[in-house]
Amino acid sequence: MTMSVKEENSANPKELFLKIGLDENTASNIRSKTVISDLTAIIYEAGVSDGCDRTTGNLLYSVATKFATGDLLHRSELIKYIKSSKIKLPAQMDAAIKYFDDIGSKEFNMNEFEEACGVGVDVSAEDIEKTVSEIFEENKNTILEKRYRVNEGKLLGDVLKKLPWADTQIVQKVIGEKMYELLGERTAADNEKPVKKKEKKEKPAKVEAAAEAASKPSEEELNPFSIFPPPEKNIKVHTELSFSDGSVVRYCNTRELLDKHLKVTGGNFYTRFPPEPNGYLHIGHAKAMFVNFGLAEKQGGCCYLRFDDTNPEAEKREYITHIEEIVNWLGWKPFKITYTSDYFQELYDLAVELIRRGHAYVDHQTGEEVKEYREKKMNSPWRDRPIEESLKLFDEMKRGLIEEGKATLRMKMDMQNDNFNMYDLIAYRIKFTAHPHAGDKWCIYPSYDYAHCIVDSLENITHSLCTLEFETRRASYYWLLHSLGLYMPHVWEYSRLNITNTVMSKRKLNQIVTDKHVDGWDDPRLMTLAGLRRRGVTPTAINDFIKGIGITRSDGSIINMNRLESHIRVELHETAPRTMVVVHPLKVVITNMESDKVIELDAKIWPENKSNDPSSFYKVPFSRVVYIERGDFRLKDSKDYYGLAPGKTVMLRHGFPIKCTDVVLADDNETVVEIHAEYDPEKKTIPKKGFLHWVAEPAPGKEPLKIEVRLFDKFFYSENPGELENWLDDINTNSRVVVSDAFAVPTLKEAALGDKFQFERLGYFVVDKDSTPEKLVFNRTVTLKESSSKPGK
């Protein structure tokens, strides 16, 4: 079998790209299948598959990388101008892109285009020479002072402001010649790097200087929403869809539709956060909120909280209440709270109109038959039934005259299309189930694929933002709006948030909760937002974490849990007051202290606060019996161990130095039961290392405040458990350790639900809802330092 030249080049795109002058590195590193496909098509459209000059090839490459297929309505015009070398400069290319962006779907005007892009403008060598001389004269003093260290880029920019269509390479060459003419040969001094004079500065000034020296963040880092076009630009082609009959439709708004939309919105940004009320939100939804609410907030626009409640069997009022509460907790304020069910009548009326236009039909295939026919790309036997017949049957569906499962309304799309989302998607199905919000008025309910895009249009959403798994649904989204003649929002997809050692699938989370692997949707080990809140994670930490990740389209990456924990530590370091708790108490008897003596010591709530104001301290009793962590004592000392050992002195934090004088062992002669020590009230022997936290009896013979402490670890051993076939077997059975007899300082007794603390040397903790007046329960939010344990250990 022989291959055509086109097939051969398609099979080996690198060879084709090298022919048009791309360098080896660029041609070898084009990884995107979309760019490869688009560039190949552009090369054949331009008729340069046998090769062309490098300038033309690079400009064609720019077209492929800047515009996805269908994004540029007048692409063929631009390719003609590049092929003929009428567009040959990067500046002309930039001007052309701006021109096409501005006109959107308007008719191409050759004269306007050529004027905007400098087509036919000939900038002579004499013009360049003259303009460069003028710029040098204006900057002569600076050039003579700085010599070859002067900013040549600024000189180039000044020339191009006066001669925008000049060849940049020629301008640079003339500037170089002028520099030599004015300054002569480079000297050794010209090649030396400037030495910055070192100055003595106070510590804060050093920090400031270091911050200034750091590289400036990009515009996208400062404003991640700068990538989104303004609403008035929503007239360009959204997507191009090829149909199996050979026709191609480029979907975009008409000027009339866009003007009508802008009149309603005032040109403001309108977004929406559209969760399904069928479960609890997880941290991935926090990213969706940041993207949608954040864009609206940044641009001074509006964001709806819209409940996508098209499936009455899975939705509960509990979930609706939870979602509203979590959105508010994260600091977002909806413009309006709406429900897809608010639009059930409009959606029904539009479905009738869709049938009338010949774009929908009532189908009687079973679910299994629909699946089989879609797989085989076969039309339903009822696809071509008369419009009047479908109208009559759809009305009977609405009135409850047809049994559940006996009929659906399907969109008449393109069963032979390359995109399976065009295989006659279901628009309505029968369900004799009352709706949590709409009541029992309806027995037919719209599908997500039918309702989502229409409600976006009805609510005048300017930017419909969703995760990348919905990218293939762009075709059906725009097909439906186009078929009904409705306004089309700008659709853009971003990558899902995936975090190590957890699952983010709502189905998997539901299984974990239903099978009682955890104590509920708000179990602190889950990445649900309710679980994170119960664990003590703050909204600020979550939003800062999301902002730090950015809004990208790079899919498949997994963010390490440590990154989230780092943001949590930064936030709690500033907001959580310090206190002392001993989780695994070991009794220490201070033998040189009177049995009835209690000393009240001052401990800093905020160690970094230099103020000695009384409000900066809390009281800690020190008595004859204190408790330290069992792990802070060893029978054998070593150089790298800073805890207590026989004959060794350590410092009790906020207290006194103590020296171990004796050890009481159990009958097994190994287990330490009690330590005897002496304290140094004069603090004459303060060790340089070895500061231990502790809790003392508040009064002679009175046990310290007893609390319960819950310590959490990663819920799954593997970094990506969702990929495992038996993923439930990967659950870490030691992900929660409960210590019911920890000791705390007396002041902690006043802690209330949700209060957060740093237990010194142990981590950050929060008061849990399981607390009672008799006993407080604390959840550890995060340790003080990043865990050194590896996944699976």
How would you describe this structure to a colleague?
The chain is of the alpha/beta class. The chain contains 27 helices and 27 strands. The strands form 7 sheets. A 7-stranded mixed sheet has the order 12-25-26-27-23-24-13, covered by helices on one side. It has a 7-stranded mixed sheet with strand order 21-18-19-20-14-17-22, with no helix packed on it. β25 and β26 form a beta hairpin. The two termini are 56 Å apart.
Shape: flat
The largest beta-sheet arranges its strands as: 12-25-26-27-23-24-13
Give the integer mean of the pLDDT values: 88
**Tally of extended strands?**
27
* Terminal Cα span: 56 Å
Largest sheet: 7 strands, mixed
Number of helices: 27
**Helix percent band:** 25-40%
Keywords:
793 residues, alpha/beta, 7-stranded mixed beta sheet, 27 helices, 27 strands, flat, disordered N terminus, nucleotide-binding, EC 6.1.1.18, Gln-tRNA-synth_Ib_RNA-bd_N
Short précis:
With 793 residues, the protein is α/β, with parallel strands linked by helices.
Write the layout of secondary structure elements.
Blueprint: H1 5-11, H2 13-19, H3 24-28, H4 33-46, H5 54-66, H6 75-83, H7 90-103, H8 110-117, H9 125-138, H10 140-146, H11 152-162, H12 168-183, H13 188-191, H14 203-213, H15 219-222, E1 239-242, E2 248-251, H16 255-265, E3 270-273, H17 283-298, E4 302-307, H18 317-329, E5 337-339, H19 344-356, E6 360-363, H20 367-375, H21 387-398, E7 408-411, E8 426-430, E9 444-446, H22 448-458, E10 463-467, H23 474-484, E11 490-494, H24 506-514, H25 529-535, H26 539-549, H27 561-575, E12 578-579, E13 581-582, E14 585-590, E15 598-604, E16 617-623, E17 625-629, E18 649-652, E19 657-665, E20 672-679, E21 691-692, E22 695-696, E23 705-712, E24 736-744, E25 756-759, E26 763-767, E27 777-782
Parallel strand pairs: 3-4, 4-5, 10-11, 12-25, 14-20, 18-21, 23-27
Antiparallel strand pairs: 1-2, 6-7, 7-8, 8-9, 13-24, 14-17, 15-16, 17-22, 18-19, 19-20, 23-24, 25-26, 26-27
Helix pairs in contact: 4-5, 5-6, 9-11, 9-12, 11-12, 17-26, 22-23, 26-27
Domain Glutamyl/glutaminyl-tRNA synthetase class Ib anti-codon binding: 576-680
Pfam families: tRNA-synt_1c (PF00749), tRNA-synt_1c_C (PF03950), tRNA-synt_1c_C2 (PF20974), tRNA_synt_1c_R1 (PF04558)
Family: Belongs to the class-I aminoacyl-tRNA synthetase family.
